[in-house]
Amino acid sequence: MIARFLLLAGVASASFIASTASAQDAAQPVADSAEQATARGEVIIVTARRRAETAQEVPLAISVIRGDSIEATGNFNVVKLQQLAPTLQVYTTNPRNTSVNIRGLGVPFGLTSDGFEQGVGIYVDDVYNSRVAAATFDFLDVAQVEVLRGPQGTLYGKNTTAGAINITTNQPTFDFEGRAELTVGNLNYKQAKAAISGPLSDTIAARIAVAATSRRGTIYNVTSSAGSTSRTIWAFADNCCSSRPTISA
């Protein structure tokens, strides 16, 4: 009887050890795959609170649209941005008659006045655009756009009672790079964009972006056989300088 009990106890112990080892072997690939997924995950860095931090650390209702998403979806200005950012509404008939609202708050649409203060602040590299007419431009060399929902007076000051739009352009790089883009359309529409970045020295880098847009008028005078005045718009942006940190022994 004692021998039979010892035999059964030995078999049970062996089965328990084998099952534990199998469970550990099965859990190991899951842990490895989780670590790989974390390593492959892209960390989104935002500057909504005037410092670089991950989007998960920001205690704000924020939407981040990366530059590649903007280009892939054809959202080339703030007016089109509402297709990607929830609760953002942009109404416009012309640059001066434009209103930007978040969660239905901002300024009323249809009242043309350069003196109106906006309820949504628009910032480009932390520089405030005081008039919405100056913010209805085509994006130029944009890295990402952050849409902050809710009052932002503590961080951004006045004119942000409904929220803020923080536009960040691409920063200078110490590796030489460049890009160019050409767009054509009806009404003789032509747009060219170019950006170049590179080092000026071992510790200083600069980036320059240029855009030019032209299009003929939309109204044709049958009496004088002439079209309305065409328009040409130039845009220029530069980021200088980015200094490389020096590590001393």
What would you say this structure looks like, in words?
- The chain has 249 residues and is an alpha+beta fold.
- The chain folds into 2 domains: 45-169, Ferric Hydroxamate Uptake Protein, Chain A, domain 1 (Beta Complex); 177-243, no CATH class.
- The chain is built from 4 helices and 15 strands.
- The strands form 5 sheets. A 5-stranded mixed β-sheet has the order 3-8-9-6-7. Strands 10-11-12-15 form a 4-stranded antiparallel β-sheet, with no helix packed on it. The chain has a two-stranded antiparallel sheet with strand order 1-2.
- The longest helix is centred in the first third of the chain and has 39 residues, at 2-40.
- It is globular, with a radius of gyration of 28 Å.
- The N and C termini lie far apart (75 Å).
